[in-house]
């Protein structure tokens, strides 16, 4: 069965939209209007609030006229996904060409729905780096992958949402309620960046490279559906949405979308220059560890060495010994370094936190500031770093602020998995206005009502400083339950750092 797991190479290419085709769309015309008085060639807006991120995606889908390209790692089955898929089907009904590229891990157990989408004449669905067996359930997939783990643990982690090749969203959000503040009890604090202008062209090119690569296979090779299955799916989604229309969250989403529709797509656009980065699409299929220069991380590292300041926000911060030494050397060279990541109590991957733990003392001694997001906020009625305080929260942001004029937002975490194993995509923006917006977000995330400030006390031991009920609190024991501590300990004992 393992010998039969290879899939044939797909060579179904599609011609990119010509500039005049983009300019002839409503979105293309809106972009031209925004750019007319500007000297810079690209514009950006940070989408930190989950409902804003959802509303912008829904509006781009509703306004698209020619093409909609969606690339994601995971796709859940919650309210937000159902709304977006219904919008996608409506867009396809009016003639929009839709391409959905999903990592095969995200396709497990979703064969019927994906095949139904693919049955629409204007929708194509492809899965990236697929296995033809073990597709019905995650347990079956794990068993099927056991004999080929060295290759199939490498995944396509990219996230893109591109409408008419005129505007693109890049960032950390997958498709699922927890990314749009719609889940209970846990939501992710995440970040996207809306981009328009010249930088959209290379982002669109990156999507085409992945779409046309041999690792991207039509879902119809693995799952079949009737010719009219898309109509059944559309009706099912509409019926479920009718039942959910009166929920508070649905009403809030509709209000947010209507507000964005009446006014501007986003509140403020920041203008500047930009560069798109992505890993080669064949990276998840490698049988070897790539050279750093051949990875997106290597390209970004050469481009973004800070001279004054570095703000790093990452859900999973696994610096490794080499990365830790680099950060320490920067800090000792008077570069202000601030890292915001998850605490042990908040992270959804305690093993990744376990690989970060051994580096904390040395980083703090060199002058690096460490902040770890709390699972609950001290101000339940406020929105902090994109997550309502009334819900258990975890960080999912992947972003960098370099000096006072550069911001990188994308799909990679600061960990070995993003460097060596998974494929990633992101945008480096050069814009003082955007950098100021990002620094405000980082400052918000580092507040003592939101995060623990990790410090060394007089005896050189770690302490976690925060505020609760308006009073300062010092914890001498790392917050987190016994199960999380066990997972963190196992990752260190088993030496899993390289794989996290």
UniProtKB/TrEMBL annotation:
This is Phospholipase D family protein. InterPro entries: PLD-like_dom, PLipase_D/transphosphatidylase. CDD domains: PLDc_ymdC_like_1, PLDc_ymdC_like_2. Residues 152-179, 391-418 form the PLD phosphodiesterase domain. One of its GO terms (biological process) is cardiolipin biosynthetic process. It comes from Halomonas urumqiensis. It holds the Pfam family PLDc_2. GO terms for molecular function: phosphatidyltransferase activity. It comes from the Bacteria. SMART domains: PLDc. Coiled coil: none annotated.
């Amino acid at each position: 069965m393992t010998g039969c797991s290879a899939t044939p190479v797909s060579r179904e290419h599609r011609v990119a939209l010509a500039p005049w085709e983009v300019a002839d769309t409503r979105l293309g015309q809106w972009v031209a209007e925004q750019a007319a008085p500007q000297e810079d060639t690209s514009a950006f807006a940070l989408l930190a609030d989950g409902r804003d991120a959802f509303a912008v995606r829904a509006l781009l889908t509703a306004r698209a006229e020619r093409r909609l390209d969606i690339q994601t790692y995971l796709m859940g089955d919650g309210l937000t996904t159902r709304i977006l898929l219904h919008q996608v089907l409506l867009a396809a009904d009016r003639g929009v060409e839709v391409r959905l590229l999903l990592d095969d891990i995200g396709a497990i157990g979703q064969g019927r729905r994906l095949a139904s989408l693919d049955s629409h004449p204007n929708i194509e669905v492809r899965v990236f780096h697929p296995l033809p067996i073990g597709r019905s359930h995650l347990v079956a997939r794990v068993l099927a992958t056991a004999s080929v783990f060295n290759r199939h643990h490498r995944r396509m982690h990219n996230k893109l949402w591109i409408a008419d090749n005129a505007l693109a969203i890049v960032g950390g959000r997958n498709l699922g309620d927890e990314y749009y503040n719609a889940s209970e009890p846990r939501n992710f604090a995440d970040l996207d960046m809306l981009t328009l202008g010249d930088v959209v062209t290379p982002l669109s090119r990156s999507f085409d490279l992945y779409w046309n690569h041999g690792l991207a296979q039509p879902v119809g090779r693995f799952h079949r559906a009737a010719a009219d299955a898309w109509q059944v799916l559309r009706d099912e989604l509409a019926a479920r949405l009718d039942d959910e229309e009166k929920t508070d969250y649905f009403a809030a989403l509709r209000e947010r979308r209507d507000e964005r529709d009446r006014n501007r797509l986003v509140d403020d656009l920041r203008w500047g220059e930009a560069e798109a980065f992505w890993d080669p699409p064949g990276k998840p299929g490698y049988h070897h560890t790539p050279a750093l220069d051949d990875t997106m991380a290597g390209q970004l590292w050469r481009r973004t060495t800070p001279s004054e300041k570095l703000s790093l926000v990452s859900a999973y911060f696994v610096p490794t010994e080499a990365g830790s030494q680099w950060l320490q050397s920067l800090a000792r060279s008077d570069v202000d370094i601030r890292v915001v990541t998850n605490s042990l109590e908040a992270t959804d991957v305690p093993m990744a936190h376990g690989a970060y733990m051994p580096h904390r003392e040395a980083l703090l001694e060199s002058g690096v500031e460490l902040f770890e997001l709390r699972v609950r906020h001290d101000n339940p009625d406020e929105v902090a770093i994109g997550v309502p305080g009334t819900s258990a929260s975890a960080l999912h942001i992947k972003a960098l602020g370099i000096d006072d004029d550069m911001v990188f937002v994308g799909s990679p975490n600061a960990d070995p998995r993003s460097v060596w194993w998974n494929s990633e995509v992101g945008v480096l923006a050069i814009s003082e206005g955007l950098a100021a917006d990002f620094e405000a977000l980082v400052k918000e995330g580092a507040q003592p009502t939101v995060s623990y400030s990790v410090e060394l006390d007089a005896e050189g031991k770690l302490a976690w400083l925060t505020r609760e009920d308006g009073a300062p609190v010092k914890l001498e024991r790392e917050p987190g339950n016994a199960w999380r501590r066990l997972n963190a300990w196992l990752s260190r004992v088993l030496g899993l750092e390289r794989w996290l």
